[in-house]
Design goal:
Rossmann fold; 24% strand; 20 strands; globular; six-stranded mixed β-sheet; 2 domains; alpha/beta
């Protein structure tokens, strides 16, 4: 993209400052976005990306700085002011009402004020026009809860266009999409570019950055490291700018000695979601379980953890048949699960980091009903140092931590349990490359200790880079096994995934 120097950027942010108690989130950050451009915004968790976008969306006031749209200063005091200025933020967690139709969600908050009746026919027609503009056919009267994640994302985009948005921010838009849905999302983005809309694309998936973005902007520790055309950058250079150092390899896999089977799963079933799944995980092995979205991977993990009731199947751990009726039983047996959705299922966001760490370990910290604060704090501090958890203090509310640090809190609480079987469900989803690297090193250490590690992942480079063996699922069944991972390819995995 070539920009006319005489033409001001569509969006300009200058000298943006924001400080929270104990954290200097943004330090004089500036950003330029041109019409018809995709600007990728990247950085480690805690780099300041979310804070910058919340300021742009009017959700958080800056301490200092200025924002201009088309060269004119604007005051984005709240989300309504941001929308009126032509800015729309599409967060990773969609802001949709599931029970309402796509049409109703698009025009929610835009109802006429002078009359009690709603112009449904006009809204219906306008919805179809918006979907056609995006290049997607969706029935406007379908309830959003009945739409796929990709379709719900289109509804969010249509909602933004209905408000005449000229700046659209997408926060981790492909996190829950299949590869095919991601390609369709890119087609939508290219169509929006052609219509002169400026897009800010936030993602930890650097391959997407190089495929869809025109320029890439890097934040680190609240500072603007640099903005460069994608054509002038390499993947290694972006990573180096993000973490402030050179990573020798993106996937630091170290194979551990493998021993006898630790976890044996036989004929595990639940309805059509999981159908006769059998496998084993050996001592010191990292077994990857992959497949397309909806293949049954997470459902399998939940059955092993006894979070859902199985219809059939047996579990054997170290030669002993397990009878698990609840996650409490699974934890007591030595099985832990790092859930795919750490916000809803892995953490109590309104409680402190220390409290979240202690929840599954109270029998150790309060054996007689009296909490031993010194022991609890010492254990937490040890893992905070080991995992390099960035937080203002142990009493910081978990919901205020970055995604990477939230994941580390979940890891810490299970490491304190000293579990023997550790199930990672999408362990690096929404986490930056620096934090990913640290989690990969941790997986290596767990395998070296003789743990059995089951890693569920949609990231095929991660699967190939960190596993000793790969199982592929499709429609609730295991359709392929790859033992020679060093020679395996993504295409080979996908052949099994679409059988």
């Amino acid at each position: 993209m070539t920009a006319d120097d005489a033409q001001p950027p569509l969006l300009r942010m200058r000298g943006i400052e924001k400080t929270y108690p104990g954290v200097h989130a943004l330090r004089g950050v500036g950003l330029d976005l041109h019409a018809g451009e995709v600007l990728a915004l990247v950085g480690e968790n805690g780099a300041g990306k979310s804070t910058l976008i919340k300021i742009l969306g009017g959700a958080v006031p800056p301490d200092a700085g200025a924002i201009e749209i088309d060269g004119c200063p604007v005051q984005l005091r709240d989300p309504v002011a941001a929308q009126q200025a032509g800015v729309s933020i599409i967060y990773q967690e969609f802001n949709l009402v599931p029970a309402l139709s796509a049409r109703e969600n698009i025009f929610l908050g835009q109802e006429p004020r002078r009359f009690s009746w709603l112009p449904r026919a006009r809204e219906h027609r306008r919805s179809r026009e918006l979907f056609a503009r995006i290049g997607v056919a969706i029935d406007p009267e379908t309830a959003c809860r009945d739409l796929t994640v990709a379709q719900q994302q289109v509804v969010e985009i249509a909602k933004a266009l209905s408000r005449a948005a000229r700046v659209v921010v997408m926060d981790e838009p492909s996190a829950a999409l299949s590869p095919r849905e991601t390609e369709h999302l890119f087609a939508v983005i290219r169509e929006l570019k052609a219509q002169g809309i400026g897009l800010i694309y936030i993602s930890h998936r650097l391959n997407e950055v190089f495929e869809i973005a025109d320029r890439v902007m890097v934040l680190r520790d609240g500072t603007h490291v640099g903005t460069r055309p994608v054509a002038e950058m390499t993947r290694d250079r972006v990573i180096e700018m993000m973490v402030g150092r050179t990573l020798e390899t993106e996937f630091p896999k170290q194979s551990a000695p493998r021993g006898a089977p630790r976890l044996v799963v036989r004929d595990l079933s639940r309805g059509q979601a999981v159908r006769g799944v059998s496998f084993e995980v050996r001592r010191g092995e990292v077994l990857a379980l992959t497949g397309l979205v909806g293949a049954g991977r997470t459902e399998t993990a939940r059955l092993i953890f006894a979070a859902d009731r199985r219809d059939a199947g047996t579990l054997v751990l170290d030669g002993k048949t397990l009878r698990l009726h609840s996650p409490r039983d699974a934890i007591a047996a030595g099985i832990c699960l790092l859930t795919e959705d750490r916000k809803l299922q892995g953490l109590v966001l309104g409680r402190s980091a220390l409290e979240n760490f202690s929840l599954p370990n109270m029998n150790r910290f309060a054996p007689w009903g009296f909490l031993r604060n010194r022991r609890e704090r010492a254990a937490f501090d040890g893992f905070a140092d080991q995992l390099q958890i960035k937080l203002a203090g142990c009493n910081q509310i978990a919901g205020t931590l970055s995604g990477g640090n939230q994941q580390k809190i979940v890891l810490a609480k299970w490491l304190q349990r000293n579990a023997e079987v550790i199930i990672f469900d999408e362990p690096t989803r929404g986490i930056d490359v620096g934090a990913k690297y640290e989690i990969y090193l941790l997986i290596n250490r767990l395998a070296a200790q003789g743990k059995a590690v089951l890693m569920i992942s949609s990231e095929l480079p991660e699967v190939l880079g960190m596993s000793d063996r790969i199982l592929v699922m499709h429609q609730g069944r295991i359709t392929g096994e790859i033992t020679d991972v060093a020679r395996a390819t993504q295409e080979q995995i996908m052949e099994f995934a679409v059988q």
